[in-house]
Amino acid sequence: MKFITTILILIASLTAAAQKVNTIVQKGNEFYKLGDFKQAQAEYEKALQKDQKNTAAQFNAGNALQKQGNFADASKMYQSVYENAADTAMQSKSSYNKGVAEIKQKQLQEAVNSFKESLRKNPVDDEARENLQKALNELKKQNQQKPKDDQQKKNKPQDKPQDKKEEKPKSNMNKQQAENLLNQLRQQEKHLQELQKQKIKQQTPDKDW
Hints:
This protein is an all-alpha fold and 209 residues long. It folds into 2 domains: 16-154, Alpha Horseshoe (Serine Threonine Protein Phosphatase 5, Tetratricopeptide repeat); 162-199. The protein has helices at 19-33, 37-50, 55-67, 71-84, 88-104, 108-121, 126-155, 160-203. Helix 1 (19-33) packs antiparallel against helix 2 (37-50), helix 4 (71-84) runs antiparallel to helix 5 (88-104) and helix 6 (108-121) runs antiparallel to helix 7. It is elongated and about 120 Å long. The chain starts with 18 loop residues before the first helix and ends in a 6-residue tail after the last helix.
């Protein structure tokens, strides 16, 4: 099932204090558009070193990480955007992209929560609603499959009876060996008894005449 992805490139606010950070973010955007996501990420991180709560740099860094397949770190970056963003539109977008990153990690329940949060911030987002429904369907399938797997494990024949059957010939062999040994001991005992009788007979004193 294919989920709809949304990757937006943002720029920092054009305030006087943010001019330097904005320049770095724009440079990162240029690399991003060229498909050099690793270099783009490096530029966004430079911007975050100067302003660690800059949501444009965070959001775009999350996008660059996601493009590189680093979904775990992308999720963390989107979460940071959500916590630092001042407007609900940015929070909705960051929750949406976080949900996509969680889908990539097969974290279905987390993705459901993220898409729900995106819709809370922007109830008219059809793509978020569609992805939420898909995530719920996948989660339902997963939950239905789990009992089947558990039942198959429960019905799987145990190995213990087979182990006992394999040990049975070994047990018969030991019994035979024990019986042979017992017969040998009996023969030795019988032989010792005969020797003892002969010895007693030889030691009997002669009669006095």
